[in-house]
Design a protein that fits this description.
three-stranded antiparallel β-sheet; 235 residues; 6% helix
Length: 235
Amino acid sequence: MKKMYTVLAATLFCGAFLFASCGKDDDGNNGSGDPETLQWVDLGLPSGLQWADRNVGASKPDDYGSYFSWAETEPKESYGWDTYRYCTYKDGIAGPVYDQITKYNTIEGYGPVDNKTVLEEMDDAATANIGGDAYTPTIEDWEELINNTTHEYTTKNGVNGLKLTGPNGNSIFLPAAGTKNLPSGIGAKGYYWSAELNPEYPTEGKFFFFSASKVDTGAKVRIDGLPVRAVRAGK
């Protein structure tokens, strides 16, 4: 595994209520995300990994799709510790804060330690919503994509995003779907979950990030709503 680049995107005890809405098509309708219309793209990567041409829950490549908390498989109305699947919570001054993490924990004091650091199939939004052998990329998968493609911040059908072109000339488009926290970055920045926990701060999951001037990886609080882009092994 390559070295992980970790940034603290939130304090451990934050937990204000965060409200969600799915990314929209150009006509203003939420994408239904029919898995039957999804296409797999071979970018000519060393591993042979194939990337989906659209986000989980998206009806087309430039649709934002659905937003998920890390280790959850369905979008929801609000993104806070009180709605998070794998924790107990208590009321804090600024709203609900986690009390104990109940799954994917590496440090005593955060809850029961299970030392799980990679999403299991039952907790993978890509697998749950697309099926088959689709899964959420690891950080190593994201880094392979970063290191073996050219990057262009551009627009597709009026939607800002990042075009990544592989050595074989094929490309994918990642919409700047932002995140369901504040500031959201919707329309300007892209945040995409990986399948990996941040073991140094188990309240966080690792993610891929881009803006008009930067492409990187980092870590973000698990309750935040981020898009997911699926991958599968080459055929």
